[in-house]
């Protein structure tokens, strides 16, 4: 069965035990050597705990349009629609695009997308102003994430969505939400996630009832509801919750990841002088350190992927981070090159579930990195550690010095 394994020693060298363990400490610390080995030797690898991981760019790209792969949770999942009465998490999942397939996906995506762009297109330079305010408060030795990028992203999303609330409370909620994208095995953690999501919903429902500020996401979704059939208040609340959380978690982590990529690439002077575009540097930085490393799908029927037969209801994870470094598509894939063609990069996914908030995410990160360059903030160390979580590559901390 494991005929493609060259030698046990070679497997050990790349920390690749089989079935493959996504939570292995060496993989969390640096997944890229393992991705390279898997692309070469096991492009569809079986995972400990069930499911498969696709690591080649071409297979991932094909998976985005494969109708045999869906987003709705399998009937065995705690998030399955049959559990909607039982768990807040399952009820929430039954309303938001990442967990829906056609036809339900279409209407919810349309509401989020239209409302999102109406708000985004009306934004001025507020992100730049907010980023400068937050970065200006940093002192040498501070943790950039907790002291600046977290308050920045929470305040930005409170304004975007039309919610006035305590940033620390909202941050606890967004953290809970992202548990839905990783296996939910610990009953105690799952209970806490349900409690936090219920409280998150209550805050947004109150803001919706109170009449959200004009031009905010909640107000735009209310307007969409008035023109469409059958959209409920809970669907509005849950989709606002999704956008809020997406605009916080990947952003606060992304700022810290970009700091280290820019430091290692030695591009601070080029960014300061303007010879290098900040937006292109941000996009290339996200290719090298992709925040959403894996996105999940479920096999709707038995299928063959990457030469492996996958049974119905099996989870299949698409390793966007690996696709982003596949040498079959990107020249010198491990090297920073902001001049490369970015159109193939898969940081924000592709196809019918492609990220709706890409423009806002890039704008948030660009504003923060601009303020960081202007105010001379640099990483205090040349390495950092990452949270032990499946699916996302989020740094623990990023201590800074002032140039
Ligand atoms: C650097 C920041 C971000 C990254 C790396 C990122 C990444 C992604 C990825 C990879 C997907 C596709 C998931 C899939 O195919 O299953 C996605 C979907 C999505 N993203 Fe983002 N995202 C970011 C920021 C944002 C922001 C700021 C927002 C909203 C304001 C947002 C809203 C969404 C939504 C609503 C979806 C679901 C689309 C659907 O399922 O139809 N994202 N994101």
Explain what you see.
- With 403 residues, the chain is an alpha+beta fold.
- The protein folds into 2 domains: 1-65 and 293-346, Uridine Diphospho-n-acetylenolpyruvylglucosamine Reductase, domain 2, CATH 3.30.43; 82-289 and 352-402, Cytochrome p450 (Orthogonal Bundle), CATH 1.10.630.
- 49% of the residues lie in helices and 8% in strands.
- It has 16 helices and 9 strands.
- The chain has helices at 8-13, 25-29, 32-41, 57-64, 88-93, 104-121, 126-136, 144-161, 167-177, 187-210, 217-227, 233-265, 268-273, 278-288, 320-323, 358-374, and strands spanning 44-46, 52-54, 69-70, 294-299, 303-305, 308-310, 315-319, 377-379, 400-402.
- The strands form 3 sheets. It has a 5-stranded mixed β-sheet with strand order 1-2-7-4-3, with helices on both faces. The chain has a two-stranded antiparallel sheet with strand order 5-6. It has a two-stranded antiparallel ribbon with strand order 8-9.
- A hairpin with a 5-residue loop joins strand 1 and strand 2 (52-54).
- Helix 14 packs across helix 16 (358-374).
- It is globular and about 55 Å long.
- The chain starts with 7 loop residues before the first helix and ends with a strand.
- It binds protoporphyrin IX containing FE (HEM).
- Protoporphyrin IX containing FE binds next to helix 6, helix 12 and helix 16.
